[in-house]
Amino acid sequence: MPRLSTDTGRLQGNRWRQSAARIGLYIALVFGAIFAVFPVLWMLSSSFKSNGKIFDFPPKFIDSSFSLDSYISVLSNPVNLGYFANSYLVALSVTAITLAVALFTGYAFSRHEFRFKRVIHVVIIGVQAVPPITLLIPFFGIMVAFQLYNTYQGLIITHVVFTLPYAVIMMTAYFDTLPRELDEAATVDGASSQSVLWRILVPISAPGMVSVGLYTFMISWNEYLFALTLTQTDDRRTVPIGIQLLMGQNNYLWNEVMATSILGSIPVLILFLIFQRYFIGGLASGAVKS
């Protein structure tokens, strides 16, 4: 009997510790969620308030000053709409170019052997490791020398330089996960390398391509440093610069800053909601019988 009661006590103690650990985990997750969501909720709430009510104490998420005036002010200003148009043009162009180059480059690195392959791969990784701020002055000099300063082309080229290395690494790694038996089977049937890429690998590479595309679009859309340095006029500036310009010398239009930030977050959010199903991996599993 004493032994049985001891075992029962140990079992109950283990259950209690497991329950306590589970409760502690849930509490930590709740606090983590609050910590992550609170800034977004505060930004959303501030965008519907008048500028003088944002810093009232105690703070209120919704008060009597609730209105759409900040959104109306932002969207009725042609200059602000120009910022959004510029961001769309630059980000979509950078995404298209980066995806196209990364697709071919990743396929070449994954499926073919050629001279200096390892050296080129190391260089690409090395470029990714260089802090962008160290290249600011050289890029500025290059853009001025080639008359690309304050142009869409200059900003697009600059963004591609910083998004392409990581995109190539991602696509190479994704192609490496696809079974080579797919290539071999298509080659036996007489398919060329281009046919293998477009008809076999690209259709089942949707998760990798979507991941690269979303990453590239997000980086280009949110980029601030080079967009500030390489553009001079409002007809070439992007949304991050427009948000910064809302902060005047004597007063800050915080409600319009928050409204513009919300509007600037919507494109990336929509893309994630549309393409989230493509992140489910394993599209290639089962394509080849083991």
UniProtKB/TrEMBL annotation:
Transmembrane intervals: 23-44, 88-110, 122-149, 155-175, 196-218, 257-275
UniProt feature coiled coil, ranges: none
Principal location listed in the UniProt entry: membrane
Similarity remark: Belongs to the binding-protein-dependent transport system permease family.
Gene source species: Candidatus Lumbricidiphila eiseniae
InterPro entries with a match to the protein in the record: BP-dep_ABC_trans_perm (IPR050901), MetI-like (IPR000515), MetI-like_sf (IPR035906)
Subcellular location: Cell membrane
Protein name: Sugar ABC transporter permease
Domain of life of the native organism: Bacteria
Keyword match Transcription regulation: no
All residue ranges annotated as the ABC transmembrane type-1 domain in the record: 84-275
Alphabetized UniProt keyword annotations: Cell membrane, Membrane, Transmembrane, Transmembrane helix, Transport
Membrane topology (UniProt): Multi-pass membrane protein
CDD domains in the record: TM_PBP2
GO biological process, one term: transmembrane transport
Any Gene Ontology CC annotation: plasma membrane
